[in-house]
Amino acid sequence: MTDSTRSLSSKIDQTDIDQVVTTGMAFPFWTVFKREFSAYFRSPVAYFIAFAVLLLLGVLFNGYVTFAVQSGNQPADSTTIPGLLVFLMFLIAPLLTMRLIAEESREGTLEVLMTLPMGEGQFIFGKFLAAWGYYTVLLLLTVVFHLLLTTIGVPDLGAAFGSYLGAWLYGGAVLAVSMIWSAVTEDQVVAAFLSAATILVLYLAEIAASWVAGQGSVAGVADFVRELGLQAHYNVTLARGIIRAEDVLYFVFLIVGALFITTRIVEIRRWRA
Amino acid sequence: MIEVENLVKRYGEVTAVNGISFTAEPGQVTGFLGPNGAGKTTTMRILTGYMPPSDGSARVAGFDVFEKSLEVRRRVGYLPENVPLYRDLTAHGYLTYLGEIRGVRNAGRRADDVLMRVGLGSRSRSRIRTLSKGMRQRVGLASALLHNPPVLILDEPTIGLDPLQVLELRELVADLGRDHTVLFSTHILSEAEQVCDKVVIINGGTIIAQGAPSALRASLERGGRILIRAGASAAVLRDVIAAVPGVGSVTVGMDGVIAVPASAEDDPRPRIARAVLDKGWNLTEIRPLAINLEDIFLEVTRQQAAANPTEAAPSEEES
């Protein structure tokens, strides 16, 4: 190694400094995305999730088709599968996001990354895109159920498109919200648990709304609570092929808001580290 | 070039860094010396733009670390303590990743170059988890050199290495110091002496001394304990030396006697030597006892406590 250290010192001279010119590329998030996205496919967790989800959906789909064929009067409905996937997100999203930031912060690699010329926003965005990307792959795999339906019936294409678009946005929003907890704690299990709880609360806002309505409160409060929840923007609109700007915006705002909060948390934790 | 001015970092009630000022010049290795919890890591994290200072300012390569954090990060190569790495990546993959984030042109080729330079060319395709501690340290160092930054900040780079690796790393740091501004922290005094052109000694968040290592050592050894070995029984020797003017106290130990000068200003060694020789004994050895860093800190904190009893120097754990 002595020889190599000598060559190291002799090579690092002024000309060498000129040679290593950085391009000043402004998209480090893309590099982060590529690493994290490929990391999913190198981890057993991601394969386990895909396997379990597809198996469960397959079994349910099989039951649904069998029932539909026997009863003879069921419509070929492509929205069932994305609807189920969306429901399962309270289990899937925490598993996909729990390690994203918690692991970097526990391993100390966050310190390395946060001393690179890269803003927290780029870092968080890259991580989020990776999780959303993995989810997108999973969602695309479930399109096979729609294709199967087309062989035995005539599913409503509009509803199918709406429900898949909705499930895609829904997934993004839930993953972004879920990621907040990975930034809050270094403990992946805690992060996963809190994420699942948060998603369930957002999912069950519907029930809270009916309870509030039952209490005979001021008009509008129940509606407000309902509109805060996830189901109100998916079940009765997108899942039926009704694409409303307000529903799309709800999910987009949820993504942007959650990413903003995550970025701030990473920043604050770094400052107080 | 690193310029630090009255830098303060507080974590709630705890003041980790309390108004330190120093500069690190280009073409020099500046040693940052202090015990654990002295505030070294905190200072380095501020200098690398990882966290903002509570008060005061610091400029690295001409840019304020808080106002122009990204500019500073472009010009700094940082090796954090404990060298965090992605263990699932190969050394080459890891460096390529960092290089791409930094926007280094041909990041993959550059990764190979720096790995070659730290002597890891043959292991560049091994997963980091299979590399030894010393190799990981070198991967970390390679990552700090990736973009050939003018400023290198290395936090305890020799910790956990075997003696040979420590030597190699010191040599490397000294070499890098010729054309970079190098700030490197250590808690080993002799290491700082060997490698550094300048040392800054920090304890309890304040700088207690700075300057060239040889000068520092001389000033710290002045008034320090002196070991005397001579051809006479220890008890007799002790009485003779105790009678020498300028000698404070004398104890028997280490196969000889240990004398403490009465005053730091007055070196009694020549008089001790003469007294021994006048008795007709052979003087085998007379030397200042090597001072280790722990002794210096004990001494300095004792002095601080004595001078200012209400404000004993704190030494909180670093986070």
Based on secondary structure, the structural category of chain A is mainly alpha
| Unreliable stretches covering 5 or more consecutive residues of chain A | 1-19
How large is the radius of gyration of chain B?
Answer: 24 Å
State the end-to-end distance of chain B: 27 Å
Major sheet description of chain A: none
Q: Report the end-to-end length of chain A measured between terminal Cα atoms.
A: 36 Å
Give the H and E element order of chain A: HHHHHHHHHHHHH
The arrangement of helices and strands of chain B along the chain is: EEEHEEHEHHHEHEHEEHEHEEHEH
Q: Give the biggest beta sheet of chain B.
A: 6 strands, mixed
Number of helices of chain B: 11
Apparent shape of chain B: elongated
Helix content of chain B: 25-40%
Describe the 3D structure.
- The complex is a heterodimer of chains A (273) and B (319).
- Chain A has 273 residues and is mainly alpha-helical.
- Chain A starts with a helix and ends with a helix.
- The radius of gyration of chain A is 23 Å and the shape is globular.
- Chain A has 13 helices and no strands.
- Chain B has 319 residues and is an alpha/beta fold.
- Chain B has eleven helices and 14 strands.
- In chain B, helix 3 packs across helix 4, helix 3 (91-102) runs parallel beside helix 5 and helix 4 crosses helix 5.
- The radius of gyration of chain B is 24 Å and the shape is elongated.
- Chain B starts with a strand and ends in a 12-residue tail after the last helix.
- Classes of the chains: A mainly alpha (273), B alpha/beta (319).
